[in-house]
Amino acid sequence: MNIRKRDIIFIPIIILAVSLYFFNERDIVLETSTPLMDKIIVLDAGHGGFDPGAIGNLSKKEDEINLEITLKLRRLIEQGGGIAVLTRDIDQGLDTEESKTYRQRKNEDLRNRRILINGSEPDIFISVHLNSFPQSKYYGAQTFYKKGSEESKLLAKGLQKELRRMLDKNNERVPQPRDSIYLIREAESPSVLVECGFLSNPNEEKLLNNEEYQQKIAWAIYIGLIKHFE
Predict the structure, then answer these.
(1) 106: left (phi > 0), else alpha (psi -120 to 50), else beta?
(2) Contact predicate 144/192, CB 8 Å
(3) Phi and psi (nearest 5°) for 31?
(4) For residue 19, what is the DSSP state?
(5) pTM of structure
(6) 198 close to 132: Cβ distance less than 8 angstroms
(7) What three-state secondary structure class fits 150?
(8) How far is Cα 55 from Cα 144, in angstroms, rounded to an integer?
(9) pLDDT over 70 at 25, yes or no
C-alpha cells in the first residue's frame, strides 16, 4: 500500500478532530503535533465592554458570543501546538479613561487592537463577529478578507468551506474582499473576518447562543486553519 508523507502527517490531525468532537472540551485536553505548531494566530473577539455590537432578542449580545467562540477557538489552537494571542479575553474593550465620547472610545479601541495585532507579528489574524440585518430572513456564516491579499483570500475560502460543511451545507455565501473593515485593512498579516451568523435571524440567534453550536463554529475555523497550513 502506497502511503504518502502527507497522509502520515494528517493521521494525528484526524485522531485529534475525532477525539475532541466526541468529548466535551472541558473534559479532555490533548496535545499533538499539527501544521499549526508554533504558528502565531491573533484572535479578535469583536466589540466588548462599552460596545456590545449587534443586539438580538435573547439575553446575550454580540460581544459576549464573539468572546465565547474565540475562547473555544483559542483552546483548540493551543491544543494543536499553535500560539493564540487574543485582543481581549474578558468583556472589556481596549479603550482607556482618556477617551470620553463613544466615538473617541471606539477609535482608541480599534487603534489599540491594531497595535496589538501587528506587534504580535502573527502568521494569521482572525476577527470573530456576528452579523445583523433589519430583515430577519438572512442567515448563514460568511468570511471577509483583506483586499489584495492572495493568502487572505485563500484562508477565507478555506474557512468558508469548513463553515459550510460543519454548520449548514445549504449556505451559499461566498468569501468577499473588504478594504472598509479597519482591522482587516490595517493588519500586516493575512487577515480574515468571520461573521459567524445573524443575530437578527431568530433561528440562528438560538443556535449562536448554544454552547455546542459555538463549539462547532470554533471547530470549523480550527480545521480550516489546519488545512490552510498543511
Answers:
(1) alpha
(2) yes
(3) -120, 125
(4) H
(5) 0.86
(6) yes
(7) helix
(8) 21
(9) no
> E-assigned strands of the chain?
40-45, 83-86, 124-131, 142-146, 176-178, 191-198
Q: Is the torsion defined by CA of 124, 110, 76, 219 positive or negative?
A: negative
For residue 68, the one-letter residue type is E
C-alpha cell at 171: 449556505
User: pLDDT tens for residues 176-205?
Assistant: 999 999 999 999 999 999 999 999 999 999
**Burial bucket for residue 119 (CB in 10 Å: 0-12, 13-18, 19+):** exposed
Average pLDDT, the chain: 90
Burial class (CB within 10 angstroms; exposed 0-12, middle 13-18, buried 19+) of 112: middle
- The string of pLDDT tens digits covering residues 132-168 is 999 999 999 999 999 999 999 999 999 999 999 999 9
Q: The C-alpha cell of 196 is what?
A: 459567524
Beta bridge partners, 129, equal: 195
CA diameter of the chain: 68
For residues 142 and 176, the answer to whether their CB atoms sit within 8 Å is: yes
Does the pLDDT of residue 73 top 90, yes or no?
Answer: yes
**pLDDT at residue 221 is higher than 90:** yes
Q: 64: which 3 cell numbers?
A: 459576549
Domains of the chain: 34-229 (3.40.630.40)
